[in-house]
């Protein structure tokens, strides 16, 4: 019984083996007849590009960045930088200049309105605030010009002064761009720390915006230390300044935080924000100097005419005067309290 | 005039890196810069291929287009060269290049990358041919001596071909027809907007 079972099991196993061999046989017999095809699994440029936008491999030199064989994304960046950016930049900056000129010739200079308070001064920005403003501003002007040089220099300046002189200038522009970025970023941090308190949006800003900021018509809407327009400038400068700083650092320290595609994107953001920033600051410069009588003193001497302050920042003046009833904010020759 | 190109036959390249070494030695390329490199794709897997890559001297070169000081120029042989006197080391060419060719002596050191360096197709630079100053800035000028780039000249398997585009494409085409396979002219579509039709 036992033996019979063993025999029958062995027979079944043998039959199974024969069957497997029979199935396997044609496959084995076919293999040697086909010549080895070395390209059967070979990598192919088109297929690799379908899997990934860049072709990456292994490299035996220490520079691992060189392991990217082909990364064609630079073509899109080129199209953006050479095809679009000069037009975007020109439109933003020339557009703003045209708008400001139009405003100047229609509305004219916003005049100082005289009152019985004219001639008296109130301290608007202290020494540190003015230092912060001018450090950031002077850096900004050079950063803006040297930045625009990357886009427009070869198109506008190089044909006039020749390649050698232009290359020397561009070299110095590049150094100033890279080194002045640091005091600029420091200035942005200072500005944020010093002026954040007075730039939190509130209800008064909404009223100011609804009244058109007093640009249209003669009425002066109420405003605290900074009106809604100035708050927009504050948030624009700190926001754009931070964005410029971050994108700029990504390019200053290549491969620390991002690869080549990241740097292309960073450069794109940097240049786009850059031209918008420049255009916006042109408006800021206009209203702080030519556009409004009495406004420049705020950042010049730091002291503004009380009549000007009363009409443009009435709530701030009230607060300051309440804070210092004896009037250390005001010149001693003001009417003494009796 | 010829239209000089490189073509790497990946089915022949054995990743010996002799082209890399030859280039470094011929031009005394500084430490940290590799004008030519060999990249191995699908390393260790079936179908592994190695491709030797350097500046492809593109048609309508992106580096030249984005350069803010226009320091690039194309020679009569269609070799893309640049002037290290004009280069300001901004890094734009290095953002634009599809082949990672432009490199800088001090890439991690902010603001002072130094002058860009890349493959010159053994054609030197804007200085007088075969002058010492040209050698110091750009390396040797083999084309002026009537020779082709050393990387391709000394390639042991003749995987790397340099010369007139039509001619090297023909050599590659004949190889592919004879042996029955070929993984294509790597980078040609990106660099020249064309490929070698078999």
UniProtKB/TrEMBL annotation, chain B:
This protein's UniProt keywords: 4Fe-4S, Iron, Iron-sulfur, Metal-binding
MF terms per GO, please? 4 iron, 4 sulfur cluster binding; metal ion binding
Taking every annotated instance into account, which residue ranges of this chain make up the domain 4Fe-4S ferredoxin-type? 4-34, 78-107
Classification via Pfam families: Fer4_6
**RNA-binding: is it a keyword of this entry?**
no
Q: What PANTHER family has UniProt attached to this entry? A: PROTEIN NRFC, PROTEIN NRFC HOMOLOG
The name of this protein is: 4Fe-4S dicluster domain-containing protein
List the source organism. Methylobacterium soli
The organism that produces this protein has a lineage beginning with: Bacteria, Pseudomonadati, Pseudomonadota, Alphaproteobacteria, Hyphomicrobiales
